[in-house]
């Protein structure tokens, strides 16, 4: 999928390598974030947190999206964040770890990483849609960009920021 030329030849990184880096970044949050699909749903059976058990260790293409474009590597990670955890801090931690690990393992900095919080998990999963992103050119204040669309009841919570 992703190729890189070195003085010794070509190195090919599969999509799975990049997905494993993203999984590691989410796992480093100490259980405050879980990888989910865009709808905040698991492919497992059951309701709420119990639905996660059948899918542990398995990632589908709609949960971590890796795109190689002409201008760079774009990664989207869909997560659900546990109730009580700071959504912004958790998303920024994931972004930090993905950028650090990509540079350490692959010697590549992605063009953009987007963390989409699709819900808040407590007994059940409350739907949300909040996007946190970082581009290869970090903001001068060192924080991630944030875009938030609508809450579960459809009311805008914050004006969207430009990408």
Describe the protein in words.
This protein is an alpha+beta fold and about 160 residues long. It has one domain (about 1-150). The chain is about 20% helix and about 35% strand. It contains two helices and eight strands. The strands form two sheets. Strands 3, 4, 5, 6, 7 and 8 form a six-stranded mixed sheet that branches. A hairpin with a 2-residue loop joins strand 4 and strand 5 (about 70-80). Helix 1 (about 15-25) packs across helix 2. The longest helix has 20 residues, at about 85-105. The chain starts with a strand and ends in a 15-residue tail after the last strand.
Topology:
Blueprint: E1 2-6, E2 9-13, H1 15-27, E3 33-35, E4 64-69, E5 72-82, H2 87-106, E6 112-121, E7 125-135, E8 145-148
Parallel strand pairs: 5-6
Antiparallel strand pairs: 1-2, 3-5, 4-5, 6-7, 7-8
Helix pairs in contact: 1-2
- Segments where pLDDT lies below 50 for 5+ residues? 43-58, 147-163
Structural class assignment: alpha+beta
Shape: elongated
Q: Describe the sheet with the most strands.
A: 6 strands, mixed
* Strand tally: 8
Q: Notable features of this structure?
A:
8 strands; 2 helices; alpha+beta; elongated; 163 residues; disordered C terminus; 20% helix; two-stranded antiparallel ribbon
Q: What is the gist of this entry?
A:
With 163 residues, the chain is α+β, with helices and mostly antiparallel strands. 20% of the residues lie in helices and 34% in strands. It has helices spanning 15-27, 87-106, and strands spanning 2-6, 9-13, 33-35, 64-69, 72-82, 112-121, 125-135, 145-148.
């Amino acid at each position: 999928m992703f190729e890189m030329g070195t003085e010794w030849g070509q190195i090919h990184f599969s999509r799975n390598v990049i997905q494993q880096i993203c999984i590691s970044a989410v796992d480093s949050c100490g259980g405050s974030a879980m990888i989910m699909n865009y709808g905040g749903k698991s492919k497992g059976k059951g309701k709420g947190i119990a639905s996660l058990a059948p899918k542990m260790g398995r990632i589908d293409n709609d949960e971590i999206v890796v795109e190689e474009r002409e201008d760079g590597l774009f990664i989207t990670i869909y997560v659900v964040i546990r109730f009580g955890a700071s959504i912004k801090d958790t998303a920024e931690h994931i972004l930090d770890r993905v950028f650090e690990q990509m540079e350490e393992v692959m010697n590549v900095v992605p063009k953009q990483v987007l963390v989409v919080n699709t819900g808040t998990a407590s007994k059940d999963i409350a739907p949300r849609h909040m996007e946190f992103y970082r581009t290869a050119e970090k903001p001068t204040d060192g924080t991630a960009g944030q875009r938030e669309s609508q809450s579960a009841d459809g009311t805008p919570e914050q004006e969207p920021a430009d990408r």
